[in-house]
Amino acid sequence: MSVLEALLRDIPLPRVVKVRQTFPAPRVADVPAAVRAALARPGLLDRVRPGMSVAIAVGSRGIRHIDVVTREVVAAVRAQGGDPFLVPAMGSHGGATAAGQTEVLAHLGITEATAGAPIRATMDVVQVGRLDNGLPVYVDAYAARADGIVVINRVKPHTAFRGRFESGLMKMLAIGLGKQKGAEACHQLGFGRMAEHVPAMGRIILARLPVLFGVALVENAYDETARVAALAADEIEQEEPALLEEAKALLPRLPFDEMDVLVIHEIGKDISGDGMDPNITGRYPTPYASGGPRVEKMVVLDVTDASQGNANGVGTADFTTQRLVDKMDRTATYANGLTSTVVGPTKIPMTLPCDRDAIRAAVKTCNRLDLDRVRLVYIRNTLHLGELYISESLLAETPRTQMEVVGTPAPIPFDAHGNITLSW
């Protein structure tokens, strides 16, 4: 028996029970119809003139129906006589290569066939301006040469800073369309300046390039479309902050303010830019954002296949598994940190052979005197919080969300390799 096995073998694991959370959840029943209705606002599509080449910027991960929204925008532009094409707008993601970014679009369900428009992918950029502090402002070379630009993105709280503009249309202009060089420039002075740099870069792009409009999406706590808004270029700066406040109000949450152990089954770039949303876990990669629960020890068990080995975010956990490390593409992960200048989330935490050992390690080190009463929560990922498992001890606590107990407490099941087999 190894030293680690001896240290962990007698650590008790709690019985757990599945619970179901209920959140306020406005929902768009017919997303294609909602996109068409938003685009039908008087004067919006009139900006598209016959024969105009229109770059449609898309590429953020984890957005429900992003392929459907993209298809509808393409169809609307073409119906006006425009010549639409897609450009991947995702900063340095996809390994910071054109082929990798096209592949990311495919994972999102966006291909030339599904969207009905060609994809023009490049990492080449054009400098379109410079901030007063000297930082350059870049835009995708294909988009910069187009007669018109449309951006599509979800509006939501950022994971590393707070401001009037966080994740949304302005960030898509400043960072997504800027490709690797633009993302690097925006991050150059750190996240402490991002609340200033994102809108400043966005304003330059709006002023100097033919941005036609943006399609902003807000999602509810169940990862469903709650609102579709089409904003003309000159409305984006004024209207986006209200959409951000709406998104914050709809954000899902864990049911308890304090936990001894949080176990996250999977992280990935398809879930959050940080692999897992710090707004949910309370573990932020920078000191410029805060909120969420207090978690003593956090475990990450796996990385999604769609993340293609990019395990950015795992460094904010205390423990992980050899399975995740074996899947990790360090080049893609490290490229994320080198571009954002935040390298902590790319580090590999203490790595244990299997799920059981990783969870035992978290329980052992959670600084609770009575480990039989450990307060443990197990979630699939930070996008799906409707169902989760909690330890038996938490049943006596009052949750901060509406919560229904499903089933009865039982020991955590593991397979022959020590990996968890709970179902969702």
From TrEMBL:
Source organism, top-level taxon: Bacteria
Record domain LarA-like N-terminal: where: 16-189
InterPro entries noted in UniProt: LarA-like_N
GO molecular function, a single term: lactate racemase activity
Protein name, per record: LarA-like N-terminal domain-containing protein
